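User: Assemble these into one structure.

Assistant: Restating your components, then the assembled model:
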Amino acid sequence: MTRLSSAQRHLVRFTLNGKPVQGEAEPRLLLTDFLRQTIGATGTHVGCEHGVCGACTITVDGELARACLTLAVQIDGCELRTVEGLAPAPDRLGVLQAAFRRNHALQCGFCTAGILMSLDHYLRAHPKPSEAEIRDLLSGHLCRCTGYTPIVQAALEAAAELAELSRSDHRDV
Amino acid sequence: MAKPADAAIERDVDRPWVGRSIERVEDAALLTGRGRFIDDLGTRPGTLYAAMLRSPHAHADILAIRTEAALKVAGVVAVLTGEDITALTSSLVVGVKAPVQCWPIAVGRVRYAGEAVAIVVATDRYVAEDGVDLIEVDYQVREAVIDPLKALSPDAVVLHDGFAGNVASDRSFRYGDPERAFAEAPHQISIAIKYPRNSCTPIETYGVVADYDAAEDAFDVLANFQGPFSIHAVISRALKVPGNRLRLRTPPDSGGSFGIKQGVFPYIVLIAAASRVVGRPVKWIEDRLEHLTASVSATNRATSIAAAVAADGKILALDWDQVEDCGAHLRAPEPATLYRMHGNLTGAYAIDNVAVRNRVVVTNKTPTGLNRGFGGPQVYFALERLLQRIAVELGLDPLEVIKRNLVPAGSFPYRTATGALLDSGDYQEAIARGVQGGGLAELKARRDAARAQGRLYGIGYTAVVEPSVSNMGYITTVLTAAERRKAGPKNGAQATATVALDPVGGITVHVASVPQGQGHRTVLSQVVADVFGVAPADVRVNTEIDTSKDAWSIASGNYASRFAAAVAGTAKLAAGRLAERLARVAASQLNIDFADVVFRGGRVGSKSNPDNSIAFTRLAALSHWSPGSLPDDVGNTLRETVFWTPPELAAPDDSDRVNSSLCHGFIFDFCGVEIDPVTLETKIDRYVTMHDCGTILHPGMVDGQIRGGFAQAIGAALYEEYAYAPDGSFLTGTLADYLLPTTMEVPEPTILHMETPSPFTPLGAKGVGEGNCMSTPVCIANAVADALGIKDITLPLAPARLAQIVRGDEPAAPAGGRAPVAPRAGGNDRKLRGEGSASVGAPPQQVWAMLLDPETLKSVIPGCERVDKISDTHFRAEVTLGIGPVTGRYRADVKLSDLDPPRAVTLGGTAEGALGFGGGEGRITLAPDSNGGTTMTYVYEAAIGGKVASIGGRLLDGATRVIIGRFFTALAATAGGKPVPSESWLTRLLRLIGWSR
Ligand code: FES
Ligand code: FES
């Protein structure tokens, strides 16, 4: 493992939503700050910086991660997915996103990016989730606006719709 | 669940848009990561970043602040302290008449844990925080007062010299003839309650970007402030500029507020002052620990309430005694929390005689401010617990007691004893529908069945009036009538809306409503679309505010549930005025009667002859392209701004009656709860909430508001409390300590509606967003009281608290335990005591020598950077240690006494660092063991405070064990023996350095 100098900035190269990006980071720079301030991907939000609220949730090499508990230099060479990568086109929402809009599953939208990332990741592996499973999954996210039920409802609706679609072999979550 | 807006509905031009749950125009951007929250917006090149040093003490004098080391850090541009701020700004105005000052930063003295002490401005946030760590402050600690009732006591420590003791205000009120009613009533029933501190804690924290222009002596500030914009006057005054030199703007999106983001305003003053000092823009984004510790909080309140009651449960009089705790400073608009409900102190009931004593006290806690429900939770917790007690004490059904006292149907608008004008409603009908639709009979059967099995099951009820659209004059009820006359009248609630038509007929709406997720843009597009006969998609809405360009007034902003009732209604009025003029233009263009004009389906035409019409866009564009073809008396049809204030919101009258709010919705809740007999966990079996909020503009959003408020109320009832130790240390500084309910804790309530339009608002709508924060905590408390048959209930109903109520205090732990005894959060004694022993593989003489040798100490104490020997028995150490997310430097001062070499020594001392402080004393004894080594035994007593106390015992305990382990490894290695995994005097030393609990 390379030893990094705290006094220096290091080049970090990674894939963000399928596109190669790079930027420089001091070893202590949090991934949240790196993504938001250096790379300019502000869709990932910061609610607590101590791993509890879930607003900063992204995937790193296919695994869910709290960006606020990750250092930027740790993701060198990794594949990251963030909320900016969920929609199939800039003017079109994915199935899960559309279900959120339909169900009023967001109000201020500050928690939403992290919740979408967790659900997107989960639904890929669990096409037929129960309400209890969705609630359990989302217990790692705090939302202060919605009271959660519309989020759970949106997730279940999206899962059903995705299951439909996957029969015709579309996989846009 | 809202239905998708399908195409058939979209084309239904004859149905109004208002009342439909259309999809929100806000959502697409938020769902794709393209929201524009304050920290998502770019800043000017050269913008600097601020970080704050905050007080670890709840109450202390600041003897010295040393900033030299911080200023030496490359990238640190400036450090501001209280002295700088007092030189640059004026004190924030205080809402009562008293010679006290209210600064946004500590000046000479800190009065709550987390109070800002210094601001470091640097090239980025990381560097600014480096600077914060290097500032050294000498504090002389004072005793702290935390409890509002103790703050009243004559021997309590005093926070401000300008108040009488700690009492900022003491007013008594009398309506009707309460003395006589109490004297004559057959029953007097009373209850005393303490409503805790909590906060609706948005997920996005505060943010401010300030830019000072020296050439014009003007500030340009961007902040996720939510209003009320009466605070604009407070800020400009503090910054010593006229209002037109404070440009206050809000970002397009705000990550929730619930009242909380009103509290950003002291930071606007600080960051603006910092920008002035450095001559560059300065940005500050609050972190979560800062937010929980020191942003703002709802008030906690101690209330005694008594009722004079007839035999049938009819309440003849109420006697309120409220002691409101506003924290360390009375920050604007406090003491508004206490007076917001003044017109509604009789709740949903017809009670003619009321006595009130209202006291406002200051304590060593974070200053309070707006928080969803604002005064409602505190008032209804007392009033509705009292109603339940009346039922219990008189042997009546609680719902019967509620019904017997309701404001009679058909008596609206109804003037309450304390002055509110209840606009509309039919409470009896709402209750009947709630009982029916919510299945009360079935719930009672469930309770009976559960009880028959010996389970702990209870039902609670509440009936509350939910006020909305605050009278900007209600707060002056805190002044006497004479003081009010002197100060000049305050009343009304100016709402504003602007509707503009562009050169191709596009419709733009601007309001100064500053939403934080409530979907204002969507609702306004519906309201205005209905007026012009177009689709919501044809209307673009902007809800940001820029005080230098926009129409706004002191009531602007998003609070007191004023949007639907006041702002949306005002937009309708503005659009209506334009439409009226457009109709006259259309009449002349189409050669039809004005009365025959209709706006429909994107066209303006004749009702009687649908073929005679003109496209709305064409008509709307006329004023731009061809003003000459408009009829002479029409005026412009380009833009209309309406200011609307309801005449019902008069100033308090000379007998202190005040119509504190314009609208009054009604809520009837009931719930069934079951309590686990072993864990005493409260489980909500069913919750029913019946709302009458007048005309519903968007059913999906109304239900969203109800669910959201309900979830926060579940938190307030069961989990959330801003907890303070008796010394004023703040104990709930992370979201792992301040527990917000998650998907697992929030059940789905049964939501029922009834619509009685308000006669006072343009759309008939009333506020709805705050109601469950008022009704739900006490409804759950009433159910728990019913389940357990208890009277005194304090929120949150954590199992430990219920255990204390039901089973009494826990017995003392058996003697002889080795582990340090962790203090109980909120307990009376936060001292850490412990004892234990450990083995080291070296004889006592050698261990003794090591303990007294600075070099050995330095090599075995984890994170120790230096140990200076001041004398043989006096050491100074510098240590850097990290626990969980916080790493900090500590300066420790350690003295040895009662030396009995090589057998025993007493260590005492203090430690202080950016992350906290500690102090304590302990005795170590060394005894030879049979293997030529040493057994060390120790007892200690210590206390810690500051940031480390706020981040939670789980982290501290675990981290301490790790640090102790490292110490032993090192000590044993140095002594040539094997590490023995146990605790030792280092536990104590670390404790002295501020490191464990
Ligand atoms: S910001 Fe990462 S979990 Fe809260
Ligand atoms: S939508 Fe606001 S926090 Fe979840």
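Chain A has a mean pLDDT of 95.
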